[in-house]
Design a protein that fits this description.
Blueprint lengths: L2 H14 L2 E6 L7 H13 L5 E6 L1 H4 L6 H18 L6 E5 L5 H10 L4 H5 L2 H8 L6 H15 L5 E3 L5 H18 L7 E3 L35 H9 L18 H14 L3 H7 L5 H28 L2 H30 L8
Parallel strand pairs: 1-2, 2-3, 4-5
The structure holds tryptophanyl-5'AMP.
Tryptophanyl-5'AMP binds next to strand 1, helix 2 and helix 8.
Length: 350
């Protein structure tokens, strides 16, 4: 094969690769639900796709964040994503506020999004019920998220179950914009794992494990918890008074189901393999010990790499700058296309 044909084949493969976009907020501590519901899948599939992963600091400030804390959490989250296995040669990892088109696209999309669509968002209803004062940004949050996704012509959006409604709204906004102004946007699809899409709280398996509750003792396994802490949290996990170790959608068995789901996603085993692993287990105590064991085994190397990244903030900043440059190279021309369709004049660029 000549060099030119090789290059052409390579370009054709890149063109065929599906585009993936996803985001994560640098607020609160990253917990096992974020890892199993989202990050682990991003890492495992990054070879097959063209990937954009965004640290969404604009979303984070829809609820007040201490500025120093936000600064730290953004670097810390970047270190965690790289430590978990995102590789800058395979994925564009960047900070949302570094790419101006995100805020800009949000404004234009605001102007085609009916208020009624936003009023239906269940996450807004939940979050606003917990705030004394609700910002306009919190209400508008899903439109910013639509801009994130649509700027990159994303085909797939891998997220946990809690983000499904937002991705569906992004689809509706894309379709509406395309109808009003002409085809600008790819209509994206949510990609939600079968198991792991909703990791539940250890202290209450009826509530989703969440960064916002990660400070409550016993609620979450946090990615940076030490082995002893992980063991304590898992061993104290709420289960039921029975003894059957089985996958189940019976609400009473939600605790056991959650532990088995965690075990399954971490070990990459099938449901029958998981059940076989526990066929000789004597009660929930043993189930919990083994779950704690596999969680610790998975998180220990990630934690080690995390601290190495955190020891070199200049390198982290360089990696994020590279991500921002790559993201800008895609998002800016897309934003220009949107502006042209809407009828804006574009400034001359030198
Ligand atoms: P965030 O930061 O709350 O969560 C990041 C990812 O983790 C998933 N997740 C879970 N999955 C399973 N079980 C859980 N308990 C659990 N908790 C969180 C979330 O579903 C998510 O995939 N709005 C988004 C960030 C965002 C975004 C985007 C995502 C902004 N723009 C564009 C996709 C595309 C959020 O707050 O995620």
């Amino acid at each position: 094969m000549t060099t030119q044909t090789q290059t052409e084949t390579c370009e054709a493969q890149t063109l065929q690769k599906r585009r993936v976009f996803s985001g994560i907020q640098p607020s609160g501590e990253v917990q096992l639900g974020n890892y199993l519901g989202a990050i682990k899948g991003w890492v495992e599939r990054q070879e097959e796709k063209v990937n954009f992963f965004c640290l969404v600091d604009l979303h984070a400030i829809t609820v007040y964040q201490q500025p120093d804390e936000l600064l730290h959490q953004t670097r810390s989250l970047a270190a965690m994503l790289f430590a978990a296995g995102l590789h800058p040669d395979k994925s564009t990892v960047f900070v949302q506020s570094h790419v101006a088109a995100h805020a800009e696209s949000c404004w234009v999309l605001n102007c085609v999004t009916p208020m009624g669509w936003l009023e239906r968002m269940t996450q807004f209803k939940d979050k606003s019920a917990r705030q004394e004062s609700v910002s306009a940004g919190l209400f508008d949050y899903p439109v910013l998220m639509a801009g994130d996704i649509l700027l990159y012509d994303s085909d797939e959006v891998p997220v946990g179950e809690d983000q499904r409604q937002h991705v569906e709204l992004a689809r509706d906004i894309a379709i509406r914009f395309n109808r009003i102004y002409g085809d600008a946007f790819v209509v994206p699809e949510p990609m939600i794992p079968d198991i792991g899409a909703r990791v539940m709280g250890m202290n209450d398996p009826t509530v989703k494990m969440s960064k916002s509750y990660a400070h409550i003792r016993g609620h979450a396994v946090r990615m940076l918890d030490e082995p002893k802490e992980i063991e304590r949290t898992v061993k104290r996990a709420v289960t039921d008074s029975g003894s059957e170790i089985a996958f189940s959608d019976n609400p009473e068995k939600a605790g056991v189901n959650n532990l088995l789901g965690i075990y399954k996603v971490i070990t990459d085993k099938s449901q029958p393999e998981v059940i076989a692993d526990f066929s000789d287990a004597r009660g929930y105590g043993e189930l919990k010990s083994r779950v704690a064991e596999v969680v610790i085994e998975a998180l220990t190397p990630i934690q080690k790499r995390y601290y190495e990244y955190m020891d070199d903030p200049a390198e982290l900043d360089r990696m994020l700058a590279r991500g921002a440059e790559q993201a800008t190279a895609v998002a800016t021309p897309k934003m220009d296309e949107i502006k042209r369709l809407v009828g804006f004049t574009l400034p001359q660029r030198s």
